[in-house]
Known about the structure:
14-stranded antiparallel barrel, single chain, transmembrane beta strand, disordered N terminus, Porin, Transporter, signal
Amino acid sequence: MKKLIASLLCVGGVLFGGGFKLNEHSLNSIALSSAYVAGANGADSSFYNPANMGFGKFSDKHELEISTTWIHVPAFDFTTDFTKIKNQIGRDQGTQIQCSVKPNASFWDRLAALAVCSGVALLGPSDISAGETSAKGHANPTNFVYPEVFYKSPTFWGGFNVGLAVTAPSGMTMDWDGRGGDFLDYSFIAMVEVNPSISFKVGNWLGIGVGGRIMYGQGDFNNSLYVPYTAKQQVGSAIIATSGTTAVDQVSSTNGVGFGYNVALSVKPLAFWTDSLTISATYRSPLHIDFKGELSAIATTGNKDNPLVKAQMDADLILSTDVPPVFQVGIAQRLGRFLIEAVYERNFWSYGNKFEFQYQNQRFSNISGSMVSYMGKTEEERAAYMQNMMSGADYDSVAIGRGWKDTNSYRVGVTMDVTQKLKAMASFAYDETPVPKDGFGIPDANGYMMGVGVRYSMFNDSLDVGAAYSMTLKDNRDSYIQSENGLGKLQLVNVSMACRF
């Protein structure tokens, strides 16, 4: 059960980590599909490339940008094919019961054991049939609005700049209905990252930037899934063995803080002739978070309407996870009115321990079911039996993040100076999924992103306003969650305002 709950707590991270990952925060990054490293400028360079904070025609000014983004995932119907996934999330394998007599038991002990086994036989068939191998589900629409703030100082002390970014690196709310969506019945997660940074510019050809990462995460979940288990109990000379899956309905809440760093480098190799070419590299470090919270779960073995065993467990949670590192290289070239940038991105999803979970102060209560008389006479004895059952659970079968691979992303963006005041942007990106085809991810498919945007400058460049739109498409026809409404979609709509003073 412990890795089971860890899996559920991490579903939110998986959704944007392996499926709809949010690299895009500011207006420019959304319009350019994050093809925004070497060409990053303005207040949001404090996040995307702090080494660039000292470059550009506004390097002598304070710059502040306030950005608001709306995330939208349309409603869709789907079929969950439980046979296509390696682990057993959401799949009922039924329950098998066997009763045998202890070897070398005496005649009278054997008779007593046979009586016990006769009583076990009255509980029901020895094989309570497994549930369906596929099931229908419905995902209600997702709508989420969040603000973000970026700031960059003017250059001081002959080449220094400082910056600050407050972003939402991942977050989501999901509400699924139907048997096919029980394991994501309701999930909410919000992540907020604060990035202070500082840079130093050497002449007009080299910029170096470093920064800190402070990330806070909070999640609330209400989910159901099935955990494989095996358990044995000896009653006199009778040995009762049960196996199959336990249906677990859980509600949990958790939060935590993690720390990391980022470094950046920008070079203008032709600075002695022109500043039209910029080559940049950035690295965001891994970030470890210990989430702490509370769990309340109800576990049912056998038929839910007439369970063999049913119990409630309440416990304190500690969930440790690692946010993987990211490396980017960008090349930006200006050609007249156009700025063209290409970005290669490497996400190290194989890094670190995905989901390490501990629970403390576990408490069992309301233990019932047709097998309760074989679990002990007192509540304490039955709680000890439940503890023993937990030790027989196959946690690996419901683990999330096993076998994930490092991935590549390829991004291309174009910015056009339509007039001196108006800029237009367009982009395309390809984002690999880290999730193997028989693994868990929402959805476990590669992504194709397209973005557009405009930015308009007013009042002698002291104020910019603009808007951006992007759409990410996911083809999950080979996934075990198969949409019946075409490609999976994530849409971002952004409006931003930036001021200089």
